[in-house]
Each structure stands twice: as structure tokens, then as C-alpha cells.
Amino acid sequence: MTVEYIRYRIAAGQPAFIEAIRQANQLLAAAPDCLSYQLSHCEEDPTLFIWRIEWTSVERHLNGFRKSAEFGAFFQLVKPFYTSIQEMNHYAVVG
């Protein structure tokens, strides 16, 4: 299993971001290699969000989901917020 973390800085008062992620999560729910997902909002800084997505592996994420027919619709939802990404990496769980 691998965990993808996508850290965003979103201007306050952008409900379109949360709605886009909600819709994108519906596509993730149908992806066989996506194990879970969660969007978190920073309590100290309202402009910060972290989207945590668990995948069966980095390989299946990059060569499975990202090459699937569903990825096009997924990317269109999140594309308007692409420049707001501060980090997008895959992590291995330790311990």
C-alpha cells in the first residue's frame, strides 16, 4: 500500500474546491486500486487542505488509475486547483 498526500493552499471562501474534491472522490470510490481517501482542513490556517489517498501501489496508481478512462473526468474536476498544490507525493507506511 502507498499513501498519496496532496497538500493545497486554497484561498478562503472557495466552496468550489470542496465540491470538486467531493465529486472526484466519487470517481476514486469506483477505482479498484483506490483503497480510501480523505480531505482534511487545517484548523490553524483555513487556507490549507490535505487530500490523503491510499492506493494498492504507486505502480497501480500511475499505470492503472492515471491511464484509465475515468482519469479524464477526475482530472477535469481537480485541474482548476492544480496551481494551488504545494506538495503531491507518494509515501510508504512505516511500521
Could you describe the 3D structure shown?
There is one protein chain. With 95 residues, this protein is of the alpha+beta class. It is 33% helix and 34% strand. The two termini are 12 Å apart. Pfam families: ABM. InterPro entries: ABM_dom, Dimeric_a/b-barrel. This is Antibiotic biosynthesis monooxygenase.
Give the strand order of the largest sheet, numbering strands 1, 2, ... along the chain. 2-3-1-4
Strand content: 25-35%
Question: Which fold does the CATH topology refer to?
Answer: Alpha-Beta Plaits
CATH class wording: Alpha Beta
Order of helices and strands: EHEEHHE
Number of helices: 3
| Assembly annotation | single chain
What would you say the CATH architecture is?
Answer: 2-Layer Sandwich
Strand count, sense and barrel status of the largest sheet are: 4 strands, antiparallel
How confident is the prediction overall: mean pLDDT?
A: 95
Low-confidence residue ranges: none
InterPro entries: ABM_dom (IPR007138), Dimeric_a/b-barrel (IPR011008)
Organism: Hymenobacter duratus
Domain ABM: 1-94
Keywords: Monooxygenase, Oxidoreductase
What would the keywords be for this entry?
four-stranded antiparallel β-sheet; monooxygenase; ABM_dom; Alpha-Beta Plaits; Antibiotic biosynthesis monooxygenase; alpha+beta; 95 residues; monooxygenase activity
Give a brief description.
Residues 1-94 form the ABM domain. Helices cover 33% and strands 34% of the residues. The protein is an alpha+beta fold and 95 residues long.
